[in-house]
Protein: NAD(P)H-quinone oxidoreductase
Organism: Nocardia gamkensis
Amino acid sequence: MKPPLTTGTVVRDAGHRRPLAGLRFRSTFPSRLPRAGGSVQPSLRAEHYGTVRAIVLKGSGGPEVMSLSEVPDPEPGHGEVLIEVDAAGLNRADLLQRQGHYPPPPGASPLLGLECSGVIAALGDGVREWAVGDRVCALLSGGGYAERVVVPATQVLPVPDALDLGAAAGLPEVAATVWSNLVMTARLRADQLVLVHGGGSGIGTHAIQVAKALGARVAVTAGSADKLARCAELGADVLINYKEDDFVAVVRAQRSSAGGIGADVILDNMGAAYLGRNVDALAEHGRLVVIGMQGGVSAELNLGVLLRKWGTVHANNVRARPATGVGSKAEIVGEVRRQLWPLVADGTVAPVIAAELPIEEAAEAHRLLDSGEVFGKVVLRVREL
Ligand SMILES: NC(=O)c1ccc[n+]([C@@H]2O[C@H](COP(=O)([O-])OP(=O)(O)OC[C@H]3O[C@@H](n4cnc5c(N)ncnc54)[C@H](OP(=O)(O)O)[C@@H]3O)[C@@H](O)[C@H]2O)c1
């Protein structure tokens, strides 16, 4: 097993690091503010609320439809906190939303951005567990590409001291998605074999580390030798170039935890294109969890194959989950904080940051993620540190 990364280690791709010169941030918030005591401080509201800069969509289409504009400053409601955003993580879902294929769920901010990091600037009524000035990151339903965002307090996570806020912006969405699917849904355990499709993606780079920390064996697919080599550095045991190798044959050459063949768990980003082959690659009692539909939404499945293996197919989405209750974002973030966050705090699981670009270059950041050239996450710097 790979040695744990040192505390607060951030795996970065220096080749894509962009200078932050020219990034302007107009906020006058101090970095630390006194505790607000459970409600929004009137002085803060009067002094600072007005407008904030955010990336808005002028329509649906390519990266050029994004522009940096002024939008109304959000105010935290009951049970919410206001975050002064340092950085926002990019996700493939942002590209789909920009193209008009992934509308925000009802009630969510229309702005892009499913995760952010920053400092708590104000507390809504009823919030007791956070204080103004806390360094945090948060799972959002939208609105992260902005200088300030409001979010239910139950979707906020503390940023360990050793981790910089920019890197922390790339954690909440992958942490919630990977933990809820690999652990809460698929019940991945030590010695089981998990196949992670797209090992070099934001999701994949996190899933490899989480699975290794659980003691599982990890097979990954990726589209290049370079990405596979980097997956191996993160701990992946079985490397499959999906452009050259038949992943079903490679995975079926592996032993499952029960001594059979195939993968105990598959984390899938391709949907329809891989459905039949994923089921072929499952071991007895295997669990396929579909989280992406990059290969389409509609496919035929031979249920006989699934039935003979006592297999299960799940399809899950984090963004559309309710804020509270059974199966909610609050439940997932609570489990992430309780079980995964100690591994983040001690550096066993670290953000893998491919590139950081200033918010002014959001269009370029989208092009970069879409290019497939990045390994790990792309992050937008909203505020210069
Ligand atoms: N359901 C949810 O709640 C949820 C939440 C977050 C993300 N997701 C999904 O998870 C997936 C990853 O998200 P992300 O933001 O981390 O995306 P990303 O960084 O943009 O990565 C996309 C990945 O797809 C891989 N890929 C492309 N064609 C492939 C193929 N034929 N076989 C295997 N892999 C292939 C790419 O691999 P190469 O670059 O090596 O070609 C790349 O690693 C996306 O499908 C996204 O929609 C779902």
Observations:
- The first helix runs from residue 42 to 48.
- Confidence is low (pLDDT under 50) at residues 1-9, 13-47.
- Residues 91-93, 173, 177, 197-198, 200-204, 221-224, 227, 242, 269-270, 291-292, 294, 316-319, 369, 372 surround NAP (CB under 6 Å).
